[in-house]
Amino acid sequence: MPDVAHDLRAFTGEDHAVRVRTGPGTSLIMHDRGLSTVIGNDRDSTGRLLSSSSKSKFNRLRTWDQRSRSRSTASLSRAFVIMNSITAKLTIPSTVVERAAYIYRKALAAGLTKGRTVQSLAAASMYVACRETGTPRTLDDMAATANVEKRVLYRDMRRLLARLDLKPDQYKISAFVVKISNNLCLPERIKRDALEILRRSEEMLITAGKNPVAMASAAIYISCVNSDTQMSQRMLSKQAGVSDVTVRNSVASIRDALNI
User: Fold this and answer.
1) Each residue of 23-78: pLDDT tens digit?
2) Euclidean distance between the first and the last CA atom of the chain, given in angstroms as a whole number
3) Four-way CATH pick for 173-258: 1.25.40.10, 3.40.50.2000, 1.10.472.10, 2.30.42.10
4) Where in the chain is the domain with CATH 1.10.472.10?
5) How many whole angstroms separate alpha carbon 132 and alpha carbon 120?
6) pLDDT tens by residue, 139-184
7) Global model pTM greater than 0.85
8) How far, in Å, CA of 98 to CA of 80, rounded?
């Protein structure tokens, strides 16, 4: 249900005339920003079926409406369908999707869609937006959800960063500790202990240059072992999307450095 209420308070008739609007607000997630009109189904405003002549007329209008769309509009429309699908599967906040839509529009304006698939560029825009907003989603998550090869997604992501001069921060490993712990429904004490192990590891620069997901998984595993909570490295690696060998090596490096 769209919100059609006034954005601001109005105390005079003049203020009301200036500030009034109708319909829902605009959105970058819609290819037309929500400003165009969609030709509906074969029913009138009261819900009754249209006559055969009216149906034929509106079918012709729909056909011309589709044909009148530019190639860029079609690209935006398909990209935002893909983004909405990724959002639903990875439970990504709407603010992140808005940012991803903005990045994709900039990429389209810069001509970055040439020689690249809409699928991959849309997923790359989503990943960059997640990095910028600190929303913990891995490249593997994005590639699997969008059904794109990881190397292709990585290539397009690097291209976006270079051409659009984007400089997203690296993920904080603590975000992945929270994400993985929540996905495994682990107790809060496990999460707190893992974050403490991670803090000590970061102070000793153990995590520098390491895979943040693997280091987060290792901290969680050590916390589980310390509290006699049953958890296998294989289960953690499957949830985190890294190999169990990577988790095992990360566990060993943390234990050796912290003597735990």
Assistant:
1) 555 555 554 454 455 556 766 667 777 777 777 776 776 666 665 555 567 778 88
2) 54
3) 1.10.472.10
4) 72-163, 173-258
5) 18
6) 888 999 999 999 999 999 999 999 999 998 888 889 999 999 998 9
7) no
8) 10
Domain 72-163 in CATH 1.10.472.10: yes
**pLDDT (tens digit, 9 = 90+) per residue, 174-231?**
999 999 999 899 999 999 999 999 999 999 888 887 888 999 999 999 999 999 888 8
- Token pair in block for residue 98: 């808005």
